[in-house]
Amino acid sequence: MRSRDRNLRQEIVVIVIVKLIAITALWWAFIRDARVDVDVAATARHFSGPEQPAVNPPQQGVLNAQ
Predict the structure, then answer these.
(1) Number of domains observed in the structure of the chain
(2) Cα gap 58→47, rounded to integer Å
(3) How far apart are the C-alpha atoms of 28 and 23, rounded to whole Å?
(4) Per-residue model confidence as pLDDT tens for the chain (66 residues)
């Protein structure tokens, strides 16, 4: 391996390590204490939604009924 390739590999490793340290520091400073309270009943209501009756149920024996 040439010297230039080794230097490039070393620079890339150093840059990746610095980025990981920066991401960890940002997480530690801003996100670590963030919590989300979950209300199970509200979530169930949100996903179930209001019940809606069928508008025009298809009629048997009629083609292309609208």
Answers:
(1) 1
(2) 27
(3) 9
(4) 688 889 999 999 999 999 999 999 999 999 998 888 889 988 888 888 776 665 666 666 666 655
Statement: the pTM of the whole predicted model exceeds 0.90: no
H helices of the chain, in order, are: 3-26, 40-48
Q: What amino acid is encoded at 40 in this protein?
A: V
State residue 57's pLDDT score: 62
User: Which range marks the domain in which residue 16 is found?
Assistant: 1-32
Distance between CA 9 and CA 60 in Å, rounded? 72
Sequential DSSP letters for 31-46: ITT------HHHHHHH
User: Residue 9 falls within a domain, yes or no?
Assistant: yes
In a domain, 45, yes or no: no
